[in-house]
From TrEMBL:
Membrane topology: Peripheral membrane protein
The protein's name in its UniProt record: ABC transporter ATP-binding protein
Keywords associated with the record: Antibiotic resistance, ATP-binding, Cell membrane, Membrane, Nucleotide-binding, Translocase, Transport
GO biological process per UniProt: response to antibiotic
This protein's record includes keyword Cell membrane: yes
Species, as recorded: Nocardioides acrostichi
């Protein structure tokens, strides 16, 4: 569905995408993860055939976006990060007008609108003005609009940013249903649990390069341990560091990470690790044993430093 070889994107002297290879298969859900400035959005815009490729080869549905842009855009759907629906129109009018942009006959558009309203659970809000909708409803409307043309590929940029947990799960259910219908999903997200839930495969990008690729489970197995033990030790009121404690437990784990408020011990058996900590006479103020997550992988590969 999507094939990129040596893909690059430059803006003047700045190279946002520095030669990446990507293959997205039909019917899968594929994710791009990375910190701000990693090159995700630049890559997505090239895939959407709205930003020209600087260098390398890119094929979307077997076509070249440099020469077949309109044909590609007619067969894909795009759900942008920000909801750009017309707030002065009703829910139904937003979908109807967008369908007409694709040249669909009026009768077909009306039927498609009813179908999409039911799919995103907005039938009861069909005649409501968009300004009266909640954030979750607006997001579902944006997703519905991106499906008007029955796309073979759906591009989703941060699909659930700003939504509460209930609304996020409703969106996840709708996206999972689309995947079951055979739609190929390509998404960017900052939510690691979302990537674990929605993607079959993903790439982690950093500074314009792909630094890891695989399924969420395979990436966790490759770059982390089965479990993580989090230890919080009492810190004097005048301040202090967990670094001295790390030196006393570093041989109990595959890797120890020192954070300002706790230690992270990466190990295959968190409970056994905590028991050995206590055997040494060390008494953490709080302990937590959890499974390793995609977030552990992400932070290890891209660092914890904030990128603006």
């Amino acid at each position: 569905m999507i094939r990129a070889v040596g893909l690059r994107k430059r803006f003047g002297d700045f190279e946002a995408v520095r030669g990446i290879d990507v293959d997205v298969r039909r019917g899968e859900s594929f994710g791009f993860l990375g910190p701000n400035g990693a090159g995700k959005s630049s890559t997505m815009r090239m895939v959407a055939a709205v930003s020209p490729v600087t260098e390398g080869e890119l094929r979307i549905l077997g076509m070249d976006p440099a020469t077949d842009g309109p044909a590609i855009r007619a067969r894909i759907g795009v759900c942008p990060q920000d909801d750009t629906v017309d707030t002065e129109l009703s829910v139904r009018e937003n979908l109807y007008i967008y369908g007409r942009y694709f040249g669909l006959p009026r009768k077909e558009v009306r039927a498609r609108v009813d179908e999409l309203l039911e799919f995103v659970q907005l039938t009861e809000k069909a005649n409501a003005v968009v300004d009266d909708l909640s954030g979750g409803m607006k997001r579902r409307l944006t997703i519905a609009r991106s499906l008007v043309n029955r796309p073979e590929i759906l591009l989703l940029d941060e699909p659930t940013t700003g939504l509460d947990p209930q609304a996020r799960h409703v969106v996840w259910e709708r996206l999972f249903a689309l995947k079951q219908q055979g739609v190929t999903l390509v998404l960017t997200t900052h939510y690691m649990d979302e990537a674990e839930q929605l993607t079959d495969r993903l790439v982690v990008m950093d500074k314009g390069l792909i630094v890891a690729e695989g399924s969420p489970l395979s990436l966790i197995a490759e770059h982390s341990t089965r479990e993580v033990a989090e230890l919080r030790f009492p810190v004097p009121p005048e301040g202090g560091s967990h670094a001295p404690m790390a030196a006393q437990v570093e041989d109990l784990a595959d890797r120890v990470e020192v954070l300002p408020d706790r230690l992270l011990l990466y190990t295959d058996d968190g409970e056994e690790c905590v028991a050995k900590v206590h055997e040494r006479g060390l008494e953490p103020a709080a302990t937590l044993v959890r499974r390793s997550s995609l977030e552990d992988v992400f932070l290890r590969l891209t660092g914890r430093t904030l990128v603006d």
